[in-house]
């Protein structure tokens, strides 16, 4: 059974940075297309960034140039570096793994495994 555990969330002022981590166990991260999603209260879960086994990345327009997705296969860990954070980035952030290909446009239904989420709060 694949398990994903996020960490690194917290509270930060606008303009600050955070790095989220997602530790994967139960299988090799390179077998999956990995993604980060977020969900704010009252809103739908939206794709933030993805990275596949070829290292190809996709980003939501709202985070391009500010967020960077990466993965360390040796550590079996996915990362999301978030810079220049804005109050509108406030949400619960989830990592997810898809057995088949994925992009930020794939939608949550594309992903087979999910973490429990980590809260990011950005104050103005």
Helix content: under 10%
Tell me what portion of residues adopts beta-strand conformation.
over 45%
Terminal-residue CA separation: 40 Å
Structural class: mainly beta
Q: Using the CA coordinates, give the radius of gyration.
A: 13 Å
Give the helix tally. 0
Low-confidence stretches: none
- Shape, per Cα inertia axes: globular
Mean pLDDT, nearest integer?
A: 97
What's the total count of β strands?
A: 11
- How would a crystallographer describe the biggest sheet? 7 strands, mixed
Order of helices and strands: EEEEEEEEEEE
Q: Which descriptors would you attach to this protein?
A:
124 residues; mainly beta; 7-stranded mixed sheet; 11 strands
Please characterize this protein's 3D structure.
- This protein has about 120 residues and is mainly β.
- About 0% of the residues lie in helices and about 50% in strands.
- The chain is built from no helices and 11 strands.
- The protein has strands at about 5, 10-15, 20-25, 35-40, 45-50, 55-60, 65-70, 75-80, 90-100, 115, 120-124.
- Strands 2, 4, 5, 6, 9, 10 and 11 form a 7-stranded mixed β-sheet that branches.
- A hairpin with a 5-residue loop joins strand 5 and strand 6.
- The radius of gyration is 13 Å and the shape is globular.
- The termini are far apart.
- The model has no long low-confidence stretch (mean pLDDT about 95).
């Amino acid at each position: 059974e694949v398990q994903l555990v996020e960490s690194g969330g917290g509270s930060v002022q606008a303009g600050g940075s955070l790095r989220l981590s997602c530790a994967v166990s139960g299988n090799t991260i390179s077998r999956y297309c990995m993604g980060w999603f977020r969900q704010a209260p009252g809103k739908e879960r939206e794709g933030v960034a993805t990275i596949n086994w070829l290292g190809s990345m996709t980003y939501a327009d709202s985070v391009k140039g500010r967020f960077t997705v990466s993965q360390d296969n040796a550590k079996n860990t996915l990362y999301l570096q978030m810079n220049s954070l804005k109050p509108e980035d406030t949400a619960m952030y989830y990592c997810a793994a898809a057995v088949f290909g994925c992009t930020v446009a794939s939608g949550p239904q594309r992903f087979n495994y999910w973490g429990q989420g980590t809260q990011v709060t950005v104050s103005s």
